[in-house]
Amino acid sequence: MLAILHQFLLLPVTLLRIARIVRRECSPAALDEYLFSFHGFHHEPEDRHWYMRTWDRVPVRDIAPDQVVAVPMRHLAAMLRVAIEIEAPIRTYSLESGEGFRLLLPTLSRFMGMTRQRAAAVVAAAAKGREVWCESPWCMEESRHGAMFARILSRLTGESVASETTDRAIPAAGGDDEAFAHLVAREATEWNAASVYVVMAAHTRGPLRAAVENIMRDELKHCMVLSAAHTVLDGRRYWRRLWLMLVKSIGSLRHHRSVRADGAVFVTTPCSFLEAAFAHALTEFHIRRHVERTPMSVLREMFEPASPRQGSACGERSVARGRRPAVGRPLGAASMLGASQRARRRELLAAEFECRHRLALDGFVREELDGFRGAEDLGSRRSRAVLGVIGRCSDWRLRDALTARLRRYQLVNNRHSRGRSVRSGRPSDACRRSPAEELTQR
Ligand SMILES: [Fe+2]
Ligand SMILES: [Fe+2]
Q: In sequence order, what are the residues at sequence separation of 6 or more whose Cβ sits closer than 8 angstroms to the Cβ of residue 387?
C-alpha cells in the first residue's frame, strides 16, 4: 500500500520522465533513421544495422533491484512477465505477416515475414522439436526481446520464466481486407509495446534502463515503419488509423486481462494506467507528426518494390526486379485505395514537373540552397531556413518537388548513414514511373 502511495505521489515526476524519454527517442533524427532502415534493409544489404538494429552494450550482471524507480518491484515484475508472454509468438506472426503482406505490400512482407519455402522449413523443424527462426529484420529484432526480458526478470527477482504462449495471429492470407486487418493489429501491438516499454524505462535507471531502452527503440522503429506503411496504403487518414488502433488495443487489453495471470497490471493500478495512456498519446503524436512532415511521394519510395533483396524472402509472388509496378497500384493490390484522388493527382503532377526540370532543380538546390548542407535534421534551424526559401517559390510544383528533395536528403543522410558520405537526395527513379502515363490511364 505504501509503495502504491509512493508511486502516486511521484506521478508528476514519472510523467515528466516519460515526456523526456519520448521527446528524445522520437526526435526527427531518430525517426528518420527508423524510417530509412526499411529502405536500407532492401537497398543497402551490406549494412548489418538495417538488418538488426545495433544495441548498446549492457552487461546483464550489472542489473540490480535498486535500479527500479518509483514503482513497486512486484508491479514491474508483473509488467515484465506480461511482456515476455506477448513477445513470444514471433514465429506465428512472421508466418502470417509474410503471407498476408506478400500481396498487400511485398517489401513489408520481406521486412516482417518469411518465404513459403522458409515457412515450410520452419513448420517441419518445429514438428521435429527444433526451433528455426526466420530471417527478416522484424523477426531478428523481436526474437531477442522476450529472452532479454526473461534475463532482466531473473536478475531482479530470481524468477525463471519460460517464453511460451497460446496466442495466435489473425489469419492474413485471405485477401486485402484480412491483410490490412493484420497490418492494423501489428501496428497496434508495436504501438502498445513501444509505449509500455517507455513507461518501464521511466521506472528504471542505470544498466536496467539501458537494457529496457534497447528493446523500446526496436519497438519504436517497428511502430514508425508500420505507421508509414499504413499511410502509404490508406492515405493520410490519421484519425481513422488511430481509431482502428484504439479498437484493436482495447481488445488486446481485454484479452491479456482474461488469459494472463498478470494481465490486469495496467487496469487495476490507476497510476500505471495513466502513465501508459500518457506514453501512448505522446508516441502517437510524435510518430504521426513525422509521417505528416514526409511527402507521400517520399514515403512511397521507401516502400517501392524494386529491391536487391527481391525474392530473398517473398518468393514467387513478388514483383520481379526492375519491373514497373501496375499503373495506379504501385505498391500492391490495396495500395492507395483510401488516398484522395486529388492528393494523388497533385503528387503525380509534381513528379512530372520534377522529371522535366531535373537539371534546373539540381542547379537551384546547388546554387540557392547550398545543396541542403547543414539541413540533415528535420526541424533544425537550417532545415527551417531551407523550408522558408522553398516556401517563397511561387509555383506549387516547384515547392513540392524541392520539399520532397529535402526530405529525401534528410532520410538518406540520417544519423546512422551520415559520415559515410553525404548523398544528394536526388530521386533515382522518379522519371522511370512516367507520371503522365499514369495520369492518362486513370
Ligand atoms: Fe518486441
Ligand atoms: Fe516490435
A: 403, 406
